[in-house]
Amino acid sequence: MMDRISNLSDDLLLKIFSYLPTKYVVTTTLLSKRWKSVWTMVPRFDFDDGFELDPSRYETFINHVGRTMSLRTSPVLESLRFDVGPCCSPEDMVTWIRTGMVQGVHELEIFHTEEHLKEHRPIKLPKSLYTYEKLEVLKLTYSIGLDVPVDVWLPSLKTLHLISVKYETKDCHSRLLSGCPVLEELVLDKSLNSHSLRTFYVEMPSLQRLSVVDVCEEPNYGLDGLHMTVINAPSLMYLNFVDYHDDLCLCENMPEVVVANVKVVYNSPEKLLGSIPSVKRLCLCLPASLLPEGGGIYLLGC
């Protein structure tokens, strides 16, 4: 079996390696001398520290990441993903991100949780990333602090996921979106930080897919008034909006929307339906007393 695998072409081996966690790809060098040169051409790296709590063992992980990235020989680094726990410092992540940028990374994904740390130190992205022209996909999850500079400009970014990240200033989210002129997909989960986004504006002519979720049972809104999500995306084709606390405002008609899932405490369902005249699949969750009668659209009451 080993001989049969070794006889596969380099292109096919690289495709197989691309679907494996990076630590397993590296260990394949123990199985075949030929793979010692092939694995360094893998265009996708996926690093997972296993939520390591032992600093000495985490040091081994740091060395593994540094060595692996330094040995890479592929012409383009397509994807760089990190799943790290509380031992990962902001300095470590900044170093790895900068290395990825030097190597021309197109997709960057970071999942970071620090729930066992006494000190609150979210990872902050290097300023240079906010003006990195090659970035096409950015996915950030949990303890990552967004401190967006005024000169943010991501001309190639088409996919942006912000899952319960921490916003350093009240306007950094809108500033970030304004620097993404060709963005096509936006996923926003505010469940752990609803209080940091009072009014969230999505005004993007290129946007095609939008998902906004807030399932926090007790949002920390305080006494600062209404919270609202304002959407102005004329090219939108897919809308997922799940939020039982914020209001939803659709500024303009969105004639391209064909699939919509809306779960919201909404007092004007007729206005929503009028804004998406071409919708073909609709799941609308509203108080039963507000459900309109008739029509050919499928309505789900709750």
Automatic annotation (TrEMBL):
CDD domains: F-box_AtFBL13-like. It comes from the Eukaryota. Coiled coil: none annotated. InterPro entries: F-box-like_dom_sf (IPR036047), F-box_AtFBL13-like (IPR053781), F-box_dom (IPR001810), FBL60-like (IPR055294), LRR_dom_sf (IPR032675), LRR_FXL15/At3g58940/PEG3-like (IPR055411). PROSITE patterns: FBOX. Residues 2-38 form the F-box domain. This is F-box domain-containing protein. It comes from Brassica carinata.
